[in-house]
Structures are given as C-alpha cells and as structure tokens.
Specification:
Helix content is 41%, strand content 19%. By secondary structure, it is α/β, with parallel strands linked by helices.
Amino acid sequence: MKKAFVGVIVLAALVALISCGGPAQQAQPAQTQPADGAESRMDQLYIQVSALSNLDYFYDHQLGMRMVGEELGVRTEYVGPAEYDMNAMISAFEQAIARRPNGIVVVGFEPSLDAIVDKAIEEGIPVVTVDADLPTSRRLAFVGTGNYNAGFTGGNAMADLIGGSGKVALMTRPGQSNLEERIRGYQDALAQYPGIEIVQIADTQSDPIVAAQAAATLLQRFPDLAAIGCVEAAGGSGASTAVREAGRAGDVKIIAMDRGNEVLEGIQEGVISASIAQQTALMPYYATQILYNLNNSNVAITSDNVGAGVLGIPEMVDTGVIVVDSNNYQYFMR
C-alpha cells in the first residue's frame, strides 16, 4: 500500500505542471484526432518503457499502447532495448523522464528499476507498472495478470492432461517476480496430486534457443518425463522444438505461456497441448487509461482528495488469463 503522502506529492506536482501549460512534448503524434467538438488531448504524451521487444510477446504491449492512444486521442510511445538489458532500460527511462510526459508505463522486470521509478514520481510524473510489478517502489498502480492464478491454472491443466500422475518439469527465467509467482501457482496446483512429481525447474533465460537446449536436457535426464510447464513465452517455443526433435510429440505434454504464433502453430500441430494466454494488450491499455484519468478526471470521492491522500485510481487491475488449446487457438492467430 502506498503511503498517503505519495498521492499528495504526485497530485500537487501534476497541478503545478498543468498550471504552467502542461509538460513539454517532443514526439510526433501518430494518433487520430478527437471527434468534432471534443477537447483535444494531443498535447498529452504517455510513454511505455520496457525491454525484450525482440520477443513476439511484446508485440501486444505495443498494440495496447497504440490502441489506447487512438481511442483517447493522445500520443503514446513504446521505448526500450530489444534485449533483456536493465542498464539500457534504465537509460531509456531516464530519457523518458527528461521529456516530461504526462505518465509512464513500465514493465517491472527487477527491483533494480525501483530507483528510477521513484525519481519519476519525485519529479511529478506518475508511473504505473504492468506485467511485472515493483511493489517496493513508489509506483501508483499495477496492471497485469494475476500471476499466481496463471500458474495455478496451468498446473491444473497439466494435471488433467497427464491423468494426475507422472514426472513433470517447469521452465522459467529465475529472478523475475511475476514468473516466480507463476511457478508458485504451478507448485501449489500440482501439490494437490500426490502422484505428480516436479523433478526440475529449468532456466530459459527468456531465449527460445536456450529454452530448447534446456528442454532437450530434461528429456535426456528424465526419459519418463510426462509434461513440461512453461511460465514465459520463450519456454513453450523451446520446449516444442526439443520435443519435436526427440520424436516425442504428443507423448510429452507441453503447457506453454502466451499466444505467439509459434506456440499457436505448435497447438495446431499437436506438439503443444495448451497455452495459458495473458490478455497482454490490456495491460498498457488500462495502465494508460489510469494515467489519463489521473490527469483529466476529478473523481471526488472525498471533500478534498489531495488533503485526504486519495488518488482516485485503482491500485491493482488483474487482466486475467485464457486457456488456449485445439478448440480455440485459431482465434488468436495473427
């Protein structure tokens, strides 16, 4: 829970910025104009800072930012390194702060991002985390998947596929809070089945090639492996490659994560049994909505929101997951 004075600082800073004519903007607008008679918001800029844009998964992050910009009539941008590089991401965040946007959306990969989030808050720029949270920072809200529930859903799907018995492995990138929550969800779901043993948790490094190598090692080490559960996008891709090359498609069940075309093609082929798909585009979409409302709406739930330390926004929004399998995969293809 954020302390009341955080809300006071941010709201006061926003009022000061607006009274001075709004934050200075540098980006070229790419969004549509508002309808006739509507007040223009094209002077407002909202920036998402992320990493790993080389992964297909983050296409939906960019899609969400574009959609919300078009619908609200504001400018939106997506910035950050293509690889998992926190130093480069912090540098991109610094550059975003320097542009004085109306709000910043950030994927909270690691606590190392706390300090730069706090810096933005201190400078009067509101920040909402998406996908992975930074609960020890001064971010105002988090929008993303209920990660424990995502893992629990995956664990139950896996148990059903193997009849509640057998050796299984999980694949993740250690150190990311959202992925650790999904692993915990898998573990708790599978703990309901005494006949299921988790033999190893493998590291994918969020790289499909590394994930394929890790899955191949699992198949060699545990020839009676019944299933592999993946809690991030690269795992499903890598696991399907390893299972296919080992000639064990259909024998070893794979529960992937998310809705990349490679995963969906794996479901179509029968190599991947199911995937736990996040509604990823909704994360930046609703995060920007929250920031927009903070700047433009007066949700007077007290006689003095600033004095009461009330921001008038939700602190957490769960965007949910969907089980994708042979019955519905075609609707997720791009």
